[in-house]
Amino acid sequence: MTGRSPQRDPAVEEDLGSLRVKPSPGAAVRISAAAACEEADRVEIEAEGCGEEELLLPTTAGEHSSPRVNKERWSRKNRLSSSSDKENLSVSGSVGGTGDLNTFPEDPEFYEIIHRAEQAIECGVFPERISQGSSGSYFVKDPKGNIIGVFKPKSEEPYGHLNPKWTKYFHKICCPCCFGRGCLVPNQGYLSEAAASLVDQKLGLNIVPKTKVVWLVSETFNYNAIDRAKSRGKKYAMEKVPTVGKRFHRIGLPPKVGSFQLFVEGYKEADFWLRKFETDPLPENTRKQLQSQFERLVILDYVIRNTDRGNDNWLVKYEKPDENCDVVCKDSEWLDNKDPVIKIAAIDNGLAFPFKHPDEWRAYPFHWAWLPQAKVPFSQETRDLVLPRISDMNFVQDLCEDIYEMFMKDKGFDKATFEKQMSVMRGQILNLIQALKDGKSPIQLVQMPRVVVERSRSGSQGRIVHLGNAFTQTFHFKRPFFSSW
Ligand SMILES: Nc1ncnc2c1ncn2[C@@H]1O[C@H](COP(=O)(O)OP(=O)(O)OP(=O)(O)O)[C@@H](O)[C@H]1O
Ligand SMILES: [Mg+2]
């Protein structure tokens, strides 16, 4: 254990279903959405050219480009993971579909939702760009036009090469040091979104709408002129000279990889409700429910070290009990007989999993730390939920391995950087364990000295470094320059 300088961190289903064969869990048997739209060509994806598919294609752990990675013991053997079989690279649909890129054998429900999104796109119900925000984010619809998810393509992230928002381009070119987040791996926001959902599920928090890495293609996405011209040329050749056209493995625009988060209905930005509750206080039991949900948000953000949790990046759903109803409206009855009437959804988790703690100049505080809820010690309910899991070293190791399997599929994956990301996360977990054991509040948690827990290097052979199972804790006591604590 090494001490450093002094400080406290403030960081602070659907009718179209009848048109296809329903897959059994683990199987990807279906009539393609193209058939639903009276298009029946099946073509294969081709990893070529300058298109999106070059960025990343699903691979199995053993196929990853880095030989070093293959030798590491990070990934668990024979794990079923999404989009990981090479034979699944065959793609359906004459407009460059993504059908078999998206296989979720472990989650048939999610598979079903993604398939509906693919059907909608093939039928011309395209994802719609969300006007606000700094990146290319899209509301994805089902064939009836209902919003079912939010898709954030890797290439359209704030610093992705196809980001559609010119202001971000301006930042990137003119003043990258002032706008970028130096503690984050650039252009891996989609992985952060999906990993946040994984952490949420593994900790049993249940506040992040399910998010996974998904491939989608749509003409409403931002493509460069070359990809659009190639697509037009191939379509033209297919129509005019079918024998030549058939030589193209993929016709249409290249699929984009990104995060797909389920859309949650009836939620509003936290800011809206927090202001309302100030003037119109909640009944006691509902307030307790909000407090419990809030604690889960704190735990999620703290573990993943989210650097972007403003009060616009979490949503609240509140259904006020019917005042005319005598039986269920008595506050105590709500708790006993009904689901919570108030729920939090932690969205926009793309700026988390830093490889180092934010520095003295850019602290990226958790904005919830200024709320009165942050002064209340963690409840016994939250401690009982989280402590047994995070106190188990095997649980933490499993979590790191699951995140590894997700991250290592990105073309820009770097093993050493990933180790650092996990060192930060382990440090956060260590502090959280202590805070929960000591009955601290969220504000006290964020004031604890920052700590990183690194895996020791147990030796090296040539350029291959073996990582052992011993851990070293390093505390950072330096106080950030911009801090209110
Ligand atoms: N899962 C979801 N369910 C419902 N609404 C959502 C969901 N995700 C995002 N939204 C809505 O879309 C808006 C933009 O989402 P989000 O903040 O994730 O996108 P963004 O492009 O990262 O924006 P920004 O750069 O402003 O953070 C949110 O404020 C919210 O209203
Ligand atoms: Mg946002």
TrEMBL record:
GO biological-process terms attached to the record: endosome organization; Golgi organization; phosphatidylinositol phosphate biosynthetic process
A GO MF label: 1-phosphatidylinositol 4-kinase activity
Catalytic activity: a 1,2-diacyl-sn-glycero-3-phospho-(1D-myo-inositol) + ATP = a 1,2-diacyl-sn-glycero-3-phospho-(1D-myo-inositol 4-phosphate) + ADP + H(+)
Keyword set, alphabetical order: ATP-binding, Cell membrane, Cytoplasm, Endoplasmic reticulum, Endosome, Golgi apparatus, Kinase, Lipid metabolism, Membrane, Nucleotide-binding, Transferase
PI3K/PI4K catalytic domain span: 124-455
Biased composition (Basic and acidic residues): 1-11, 65-75
InterPro entries: Lsb6/PI4K2, PI3/4_kinase_cat_dom
UniProt xrefs under PROSITE patterns: PI3_4_KINASE_3
Cellular component annotations (GO), alphabetically ordered: cytosol; early endosome membrane; endoplasmic reticulum membrane; Golgi membrane; lysosomal membrane; plasma membrane; trans-Golgi network
Region (Disordered): 1-25, 50-101
Top enzyme class: transferase
Pfam families (alphabetical): PI3_PI4_kinase
Membrane topology annotation: Peripheral membrane protein
EC id: 2.7.1.67
Compartments, record wording: Cell membrane; Cytoplasm, Cytosol; Early endosome membrane; Endoplasmic reticulum membrane
Protein family per UniProt: Belongs to the PI3/PI4-kinase family. Type II PI4K subfamily.
Protein name: Phosphatidylinositol 4-kinase type 2
Organism: Erpetoichthys calabaricus (Rope fish)
Taxonomic lineage: Eukaryota, Metazoa, Chordata, Craniata, Vertebrata
